Amino acid sequence: KNESSQSQTSNNEKWWLRASNTKYLAGLCACNSCRLATGFDIQAWAFVPKTHIRQVDGKEVDFKMGTLKTYSHTPGTYRDFCGKCGATVFWRCEGRRGDVIDISAGLLDAAEGARAEEWLEWRTKVSFEECAANKGLVAKLSEGLKKWGDS
Predict the structure, then answer these.
(1) Backbone angles phi, psi at 147, to 5 degrees
(2) What distance in Å separates the CA atoms of residue 89 and residue 51, rounded to the nearest whole number?
(3) Measured at the alpha carbon of residue 85, what is the angle toward residues 80 and 87, in degrees to the nearest 5?
């Protein structure tokens, strides 16, 4: 994961908001860390500020809620997963991106399906393509995303 990103651009724009601030940015990651944590070459993330993430009871997200478990390999960087089924839930880091949290997009329960396009605007490139373990798969995915973005 890119740990040097900031929560706003040099123009003071919120990089994680799209479509006139009505959708969150989402993207696919091919970094080695995501591959090892999820067991697949690609991880889909939605980038959402912590203040916009709520528990079922309406309270602000608590990273110790329910069956949520946390793993940290690098100080200040965390991966949260379900302790019951193992599903990847969040990736987060302290201080480097404000309080923008990566949410595993496959967990979103949108009426239109897994891509949750009413909530998310998808990047048309794969992050960390150069780090991919399966370069052929990621290259073809990246090629398809570019074509999709141009249509």
Answers:
(1) -65, -45
(2) 16
(3) 40
Task: Determine contact, residues 87/104, Cβ cutoff 8 Å.
Answer: yes
- Nearest 5°: the CA angle 121, 89, 115 is 30
Distance CA(95)–CA(76), nearest Å, equals 8
The two tokens of residue 73 are 């390999």
Over 90: is that where the pLDDT of 27 sits? Answer: yes
Phi-psi region of 83 (alpha: psi -120 to 50; beta: other; left: phi over 0): alpha
- CA 59, CA 62: separation in Å to the nearest integer? 8
CA-to-CA distance for 46 and 59, rounded, in angstroms? 20
What pLDDT was estimated at residue 9? Answer: 46
Of 127, 113, 111, nearest in space to 47 by CA: 127
| Residue 139: both structure tokens together | 């290259």
CA–CA distances in Å: residue 74 to residues 33, 52, 86, 98: 11, 25, 20, 17
Considering the entire predicted model, what is its pTM? 0.85
